[in-house]
Amino acid sequence: MPRPERLGGVFRVLCLCAVFEAACLLDAGMLFPRESSSREVKELNGLWNFRADGSSNRNQGFERAWFKSRLAETGPVIDMPVPASYNDITQDPALRDFIGWVWYEREVVVPAHWIADEGTRVVIRVGSAHYYSVVWVNGVKVTEHKGGHLPFEAEIGAVIRKDPTQPCRITIAVNNTLSLDTLPPGTIQHMTDRTKYPDGYFVQNIFFDFFNYAGIHRPVLLYTTPKAHVEDITVMTDFLDNTGLVNYKVSVQGAASASLKVTLMDKDGRCVASSSGPSGVLKVTDVNLWWPYLMHENPGYLYSMEVRLMAADERSAYEDVYTLPVGIRTVNVTSTQFLINNKPFYFHGVNKHEDSDIRGKGLDWPLIVKDFNLLKWLGANSFRTSHYPYAEEIMQMCDRHGIVVIDECPGVGIKDIRSFGNASLAHHLVVMDELVRRDKNHASVVMWSVANEPAAEMPPADFYFKTLIKHTKDLDPTRPVTFVTDSNYARDKGAPYVDVICVNSYFSWYHDPGHLEVIPIQLNTQFENWYRKYQKPIIQSEYGADTVPGLHNDPPVMFTEEYQKEVLQSYHNVFDQKRKQYVIGELIWNFADFMTSQGIMRVVGNKKGVFSRQRQPKAAAFILKERYWRLANETGRLPPWTKYPCSL
Ligand code: GCB
């Protein structure tokens, strides 16, 4: 007779398998390109040729087929760095505020053996380009993609093999025009009053509070795989006592049959479990769980799962090797707690933006590493990817450093009733597919956020969010789902479907500006109302105040460093009462100042950062740092080197 605890273990594995089947709905994968003994990667970062299509209908590039010949042959080109937003690179205000198609192009030398070996797949991958992209190789269209924050790729072997003597010319056209069914939504407004605006004048209206930076924002690269290759891997993890469980599924392409060897290695490269076959459970004795930063002395522990595929056809034999970092951890939500590895986790973190001087939303390693150092200095254990998916490279950093992520899709600014129609919903579902497909294996990602502050009170919103949240849970039954709300109406709409209530509020800022004294009562009321209604844990997902660094006044007045400090401290007092009950986290708005479109509410961007846009601390950063380290000391187990939060 199996002992009861054994039965428990078997049951656990069976449950994990059932959940797992549900989670493998996505048919195609898109593994992050990694080099291995069977795969090569060639980065195409650097200078590209660039031209904005300034024609009145912005369509000259297509009418004159700019993709057919070298871009310099059809008009003037300038240097444009990739990755980067193009907006702040030149001195031309027309390019900063440009709306429409821009064209990028560069030539690449493709290694001869990639072309000679017909058994090699050559893939182009764009980490992200905002918003709509079309890609040609040597004048042949290879793919197009809608959506600004997620990767897309295309196999180009057949095109480059057509004439191996030609250099490989890559052309990418990118359009930043937003419509009512893009994510985020926007509208184009044509100004026809000739007494006020010149002929053909139009503007883009947006309903979100960050600059609509555009261009190729993340790395472009070519990579190879063998024809028979590992197309996707999904892992879901659990543990029982000391044994870690890694339930995996591998999908293979390009081979009628293949044999697989799956090996899990610890940090020192020692094999701790192995298996063969396209799916299975790896059992790890004496498991090192993945823990958040400041919750454990050894945070961010990652195993390496090596998948080795062997296959053959009448022509040749193929071997493909892909290694995936795997953190073993669980996530659960009760009516009052957020549990990681069955221990209560309190989010003390930030909201961020991908945003900095000059490069806009372009991926920039010095900035990424600086931001992680600042997060650690602050004692932050988490962030929300407000308001769109961040680069995969950032998600990998979070896995390694134990920074917990609420992964948000670009569903921000859904305010117009027409953005709740079928076309919008269909696109939103696809974006969630792409996001879950990309980020499902990141241990750091503990929750999906499907939207930020939608107009949830509008009648079609109920069906929209019910469908969206159900779809997301079907894609990934292991993670809770939320959408972030600001509206009291939403208390009765949409929220029933979420697992965790995320609420933004700006008491004494947008409401009762200047009246710091209202914060305690209003914040208290906010929490009590939400909890009474839903009995679900609550995260204060935004709060803060605009602050111009160096501006001082005592007693505090709005926009000064003193006022930001007071706002934070008043909120913190209430958090300290409520975190003993059902408040499970606090995320400051914002980590750093960021650029917005111009308007009477913004002084060169949003200034609610606790760091300036150049990542220098305002006075509030020290308040937050002291608090976060105190919270960490109370709730976590600090690594010896972080006892004194002075250096990394
Ligand atoms: C919010 C939004 C965020 C804004 C912020 C603000 O509620 O979610 O995108 O930037 O308020 O500062 O107004």
From TrEMBL:
UniProt keyword annotations, A-Z = Glycoprotein, Glycosidase, Hydrolase, Lysosome, Signal
What is known about regulation of its activity? Inhibited by L-aspartic acid.
Primary location recorded for the protein, binned into one broad class: other
Signal peptide range equals 1-22
Q: What Pfam families does the record point to?
A: Glyco_hydro_2, Glyco_hydro_2_C, Glyco_hydro_2_N
Q: Does the record bear Heme in its keywords? A: no
User: Organism classification, top ranks?
Assistant: Eukaryota, Metazoa, Chordata, Craniata, Vertebrata
On whether Signal is a keyword of this UniProt record, the answer is: yes
Q: Which residues belong to any copy of the Glycoside hydrolase family 2 catalytic domain? A: 331-632
UniProt EC number:
3.2.1.31
UniProt family annotation:
Belongs to the glycosyl hydrolase 2 family.
What is this protein's function per UniProt? Plays an important role in the degradation of dermatan and keratan sulfates.
Reactions catalysed: a beta-D-glucuronoside + H2O = D-glucuronate + an alcohol
Please report the name of this protein according to its UniProt entry.
Answer: Beta-glucuronidase
The subcellular localization recorded is: Lysosome
